[in-house]
Amino acid sequence: MIKRIGNTPIQERHKASCHCGAVVLELTLPDGVVDPRRCDCSLCRRRGAIVASVPLAGIRILQGEDVLRCYQFNTRTAKHYFCSICGIYTHHQRRSNPAQYGYNLACLEGVNPFELGEVPLLDGINHPADRLV
Ligand SMILES: [Zn+2]
């Protein structure tokens, strides 16, 4: 359970925003930052974000719902949201667990993801949902 990154305490209700500030989210993080990871799937490889998980009820869009765009590919299960003004990925509804969002750790207010230390790599090339045959 990660309750602090660098000098920034992770609050139970922590704000997150895109780069231009048009999109503002409120994340409910009673357990801090859960399951931070990188992923090497074809999208994450390009995007480069460190992602953590929250239940769907754990993200509330405070501002900018109208500028958020959704990107889907491959099985079109996951929904990847990004700001249409600055292009920053904010969150996505997960494919391996559609009851959860993943979110861009770097969007959390005051958080520098480079202060997180070592982050596990998820095997996105061999996606968990493709292995369940
Ligand atoms: Zn933006």
TrEMBL record:
It comes from Aeromonas hydrophila subsp. hydrophila (strain ATCC 7966 / DSM 30187 / BCRC 13018 / CCUG 14551 / JCM 1027 / KCTC 2358 / NCIMB 9240 / NCTC 8049). SUPFAM superfamilies: Mss4-like (SSF51316). The lineage of its organism: Bacteria, Pseudomonadati, Pseudomonadota, Gammaproteobacteria, Aeromonadales. PROSITE patterns: CENP_V_GFA. Gene3D superfamilies: 2.170.150.70. Residues 14-130 form the CENP-V/GFA domain. This is Glutathione-dependent formaldehyde-activating, GFA. Keywords: Metal-binding, Zinc. Belongs to the Gfa family. One of its GO terms (molecular function) is metal ion binding. Pfam families: GFA.
